[in-house]
Design goal:
Elements: H1 5-10, H2 22-154, H3 157-169, H4 175-199, E1 201-207, E2 210-216, H5 220-230
Antiparallel strand pairs: 1-2
């Protein structure tokens, strides 16, 4: 057990011969008691300060641990938010790229379809145009041949003889009859021309999925019949 100031104060010594001076010993003990008491108080103060410091250290240590834990939690939360944000951004980017690719593909397909349809229509129109030109050339050639044939018929000697005989007979006919004879060749030619014009008509027919315009021309038999009738 530690020695206390009271123990020093109450300590009694036996008196013997040639011993120490009691007054000096008591005075010294009093000084020791005083100093020892001061040391004890200082020690208590230091212990209290040490205890307070230890409590503060523990408080700050606990606070440090709490802060570190909070920092770790915040860091984990931040990392999680960052990962989620990066994942969402990546998904949004991928979706946007996919949508853009789909739109581009659709636009390309529509463009190709439009170009294909336009090319097909252009080819069909070209074929129809060439067919019409060919038929027009054939019609023109046949019409030219027919007109030349009719013109040759009109210029034939039979017509001249007929006209001459009409002039000779006009002296014996009434003026009205003579007028009818003069107009008869013209009326016949006009009726033949009208029949020729009516025989040229246009129709549309389907050939291998394509439409084209067909011109129907008068047959050679009809021309021959007209020539025979004219003769």
């Amino acid at each position: 057990m530690a020695l206390s100031p009271l123990d020093i104060h109450d300590k009694e010594f036996n008196v013997r011969m040639r011993g120490y001076d009691q007054d000096q010993v008591n005075e010294f003990l009093s000084q020791i008691i005083k100093d020892y008491s001061a040391l004890i108080k200082e020690n208590e103060r230091l212990n209290k300060s040490l205890s307070d410091a230890q409590e503060k250290v523990k408080y700050f240590s606990d606070m440090k641990d709490a802060l570190n834990q909070s920092i770790l939690v915040a860091q984990e939360a931040a990392d999680k938010v960052k990962r989620n944000a990066e994942g969402e951004a990546q998904l949004i980017t991928q979706k946007a790229e996919q949508n853009a690719q789909d739109m581009l593909t659709e636009a390309t397909e529509k463009t190709n379809q439009i170009l294909s349809d336009a090319s097909a229509k252009n080819k069909a129109i070209t074929v129809q145009t060439e067919d019409l030109r060919r038929q027009t050339r054939v019609f023109r050639q046949r019409l030219q041949v027919m007109l030349e044939s009719q013109l040759e018929v009109v210029k034939s000697p039979e017509w001249k003889e007929l006209l001459a005989s009409n002039n000779e007979a006009s002296d014996y006919l009434d003026p009205s009859t003579n007028s009818e004879l003069d107009n008869q060749p013209t009326d016949s030619l006009n009726s033949e021309s009208a029949a020729t014009a009516e025989s040229a008509s246009t129709t549309e027919s389907a050939d291998a999925g394509q439409t084209y315009t067909e011109i129907v021309f008068p047959s050679d038999d009809e021309g021959s019949t007209s020539n025979s009738d004219a003769e």
